[in-house]
Amino acid sequence: MQLRGTIIGFCALLAGVARAQAPAAGEKDGPGLALFTAKALVCSWDGEQVVDNAVVLVKDGRIESVVPRAAAAIPVGYVVRDLGPLWCMPGMIDLHSHVGGAMDINDMVYVTNPELRVSTSVIPDNPNFRRAVAGAVTSVLFIPGSGTNSGGQGILLKTGLPKYEESVLRDPGSLKVAQWGNPERYLFGVGKTFENYHIRQMFTQGRAYWKAWKDFESGTGPKPEKNIRFELLRALFNHETQISTHTQVAQVVMMTIVMIRGEFGLDVYIDHGEFGGYIYAGLAKKMGVPAILGPRNVDAPTRSVIDWVGTNPERMQGLAAGYAEAGHDMIGFNTDANVIPQEELFLQSAMNVRFGFDNSNMAAVRGHTIVPAKTAKIDARVGSLEKGKDADIVVLTGDPSDPRSAVELVLIEGRVVYDTKLETRRF
Length: 427
What we know:
- With 427 residues, the chain is of the alpha/beta class.
- It folds into two domains: 2-89 and 410-419, Urease, subunit C, domain 1; 92-383, Metal-dependent hydrolases (TIM Barrel).
- The chain is built from twelve helices and 18 strands.
- It has helices at 2-21, 127-134, 164-167, 192-217, 231-237, 250-263, 281-287, 303-309, 319-325, 345-354, 363-366, 370-375, and strands at residues 33-41, 50-59, 62-68, 79-82, 87-90, 92-97, 137-142, 152-158, 168-179, 242-247, 268-272, 291-293, 298-299, 317-318, 331-333, 393-396, 407-412, 415-419.
- Helix 4 (192-217) packs across helix 5.
């Protein structure tokens, strides 16, 4: 009897392992998945935004279609999951996070360190990422700190996948540049003028290095000696990645726009953007510089803010409202996690809506999805529920702009990585 019980238990264990290893619905090589949802927030860049009473079809980790249920033809063999009154939306994207690895990386060797890489410290599926998934965040830009004017290279990651290779969206994800608000404390102290000097020097030398390689590749110059310090600059000048700029206080927000974008023609976006940064929102829009705002979301009319900015807002000025009022429409949000916990990304837009940001056309949700995806040029894969994109889908109880809404289910590339009913994740 004891032997029979042991054999039965062993067979049950093997069956459990087999079930755990078998592809789930929507995964690669698994059956297709059909999600019935009360409302699908599509969040396309310039197309359909919402489909009511929708069916989201997923196959091989990608979205096949999002159509009204009345027009849907469910392919044979697809697993159907009726979500009842729940909504679906694309996974949220945070372009400023420091919780992708063992620690915040701040290797302050020189004033600019473009050769340093945080990718060497990534820990996929770490506890901060598990909480992020539960808070609807499926992709982040993990970047070094702001102790120097350039702390190094970030990496774009999926938050809910277990292996490094499958987590990487793009490496390098950005070059981190920091203007004021931290790097002035480097070594003997670095003021705004010295910061601008060092940033300009880095890009001037990097442009010369890039041009030398372009000449060699076109057969018009000798082969340059490889310099690891400036290798990333080749990708930047080839527009293969972007610069994420920790910039706060109006003067340095302006310098980010006119120097990095205007003088060097590089793809750059504003990170933080507080303390009167909205003064230059019109220029940012004109120059094609997106604004990824937070985690400070309000400028208060305090003495220090007035001194820094040079003007008095005379009110509690919401940052996103300030940028939007100047006509800027590429506005997203970040947490600077773990300054704000990664799972609280949704609160950044909610606070901005509370302080005047117009959300009548889903600007808050777009600021978490398609806007950061377009900003980081990863919108071919993520940022909206459109055919061919990764099936990074969040299922929640209602409007994601409402802090009372709760996340019920999260899929990344068709895999269920969080489900409140199954309690599949540890915290």
